[in-house]
Amino acid sequence: MVLCCPECGSKEFWKDGLRYDPNGDSVQRFLCKKCGYRFSDPIKGNSYKECQTNSNHQLCAILKEAKKLDTATEIKTVAGESPKTQQDIKGKLIEFAWKLQREGITEVTIRNYTKILRLLSEDGANFYDADSVKDVIAHKKWATSSKAYAVAVYQKFAKIEKITWQPPKYKFNQKLPFIPLESEIDTLIAFCGKKTSTILQLLKETAMRIGEALRLKWTDVDSNSNTIILNETEKNGIPRMFKVSSKLIAMINNLPKKKETIFAVRFINNLETDFNYQRKRAAAKLQNPRLLRITFHTLRHWKATMEYHKTKDILHVMQLLGHRNIQNTLIYTQLVKFENEEEYHSATAKTVEEAKQLIEAGFEYVTDMKGIKLFKKRK
Fold first, then answer.
1. Are the C-beta atoms of residues 117 and 158 closer than 8 Å to each other?
2. Cut 0.70: pTM above it
3. Is the pLDDT of residue 363 over 90?
């Protein structure tokens, strides 16, 4: 019997730990590379019934089921009455997810919201009893910021369901983001596969959000002028155009043109799972645990920090990030201290083409000496 994914039939998957049956025997678990489905070896256990999909598949199923709901068959829960079964709770989450989607909320946000509500319900929270929700959040062993997020999620649910409550006061503890060295980013890019490395290079050069990058279409890229246009922004961001390197354009053009979008990623969780696996391998091989702290969003922070350090122009950084409120950009004025502050790579150029290549590689022009142009780039 050839082992294949029971969800999509793919024969490509990773080993994903062991599962133990009641007799104490171990059963190998697998993670499908194509669709992200998690399953166990069917020969050693009845795994096809016991396996669980990842959160993206759960969200997809929720939204798919929600679209089938007719107004006459929607679950109606009387205020103050707790859903009595798991099916009732699932029904309320389906309704909530569908209402969020109709408001134009992104799937990533919907997935996070439904996950929080599901965790609260598993601990006994009654969505129609605000005091019950408060008690569960208070007893959760979460960070204060996580509790504040849970309050915000339930606040949205309460607003949609017309539930009156006095939300508890938890404050988001703002922390400075992790800023890796450029050499660490480049090392990680080199370790990843073709698609993931192209995405990382794109995020490094443009400071896009990962969701914005995945919406890019082939028609948004101009290979002749080395520009990329971003029109489908997130968080009400400003549309913008980026001048990128020839290296990035070549990496993009080397990808297969299977769909209208460049990266043809159906579920972001599958991409994140793949990236986490490659990042873990790189960190272990290079014995550098700092690589594990690099996420897709880390590259946005890195680019913004570097641009402010280079230009000291907060409005330029604001435009680069697509922010409409400068308060969201001011955090990068605090991130200008670097390791090896006075250490640079140096390079020279005798021709315009050589100078162009150095600038595209991130070098800064310093001066001319005897007809030779000098450039530097921080280590």
1. no
2. no
3. no
